Amino acid sequence: MGNEMRADVERLRAADSDREKVAEQLKAALDEGRLSLHEYDDRVRDAYAAKTYQELLVLLTDLPKPGLSAAEVTARRQAEARRAARRMPTALLVLWTIWAALAVVNLVVFGLVAVTVDGDLYPWPVWMLVPGAALAAVTVGVQAIRHQQRR
Question: What is the DSSP code string of 5-55?
């Protein structure tokens, strides 16, 4: 029953203040040259006739936020694409997490053994560097391939 009582935001009824905000955004788009006078008139008419948020949002879907130039929109899209390209693939993140957890467990166990045993102890956690180096090489290779594919 809880899900039934929750209404989707887009289906909620819009208030007059919501319609006025959309009309202001449309006016800003007209002033910036993004809409022709005819498009502006049609959209403002539709905004004041809108009953739900969905009907209002449809009027703004193809418009950037007011005050953004085309160059700023393009720069933001390019920056987001660069951020996405730098992001490590999920599989590699999982592998790095597993490696780090195993390295920490090895170091903690080694530390506990070293504290409780007298004399020299073979430093077995150093062997965790081998899979770490292999994982680092794979990560660098994957990122290099992804970088080449972007070009």
Answer: HPPPGGGSBPPHHHHHHHHHHHHHHHHTTSS-HHHHHHHHHHHHH--BHHH
Distances (CA, A) of 123 to 18, 74, 98, 115, 133: 67, 53, 21, 13, 18
CA 109 – CA 114 distance, rounded (Å): 8
Nearest partner of 58 among 66, 68, 46, 69, judged by Cα? 46
Question: Is pLDDT larger for residue 145 or for residue 149?
Answer: 145
Q: What are phi and psi of 122, to 5 degrees?
A: -65, 130
Using the structure block, give the residue that is written with the tokens 């007011």. Answer: 66
Quick one: CA dihedral 38, 39, 40, 42, positive or negative?
Answer: positive
pLDDT confidence band for 67 (50 / 70 / 90): low
> Residue 67 carries which side chain, given as an amino acid letter?
G
- In this structure, is the dihedral angle defined by the CA atoms of residues 100, 104, 109 and 115, taken in order, positive or negative? positive
Let me know: does 88 contact 63? Beta carbons within 8 Å.
no
**pLDDT at position 69, please?**
65
Nearest to 65 by CA among 43, 39, 34, 44: 34
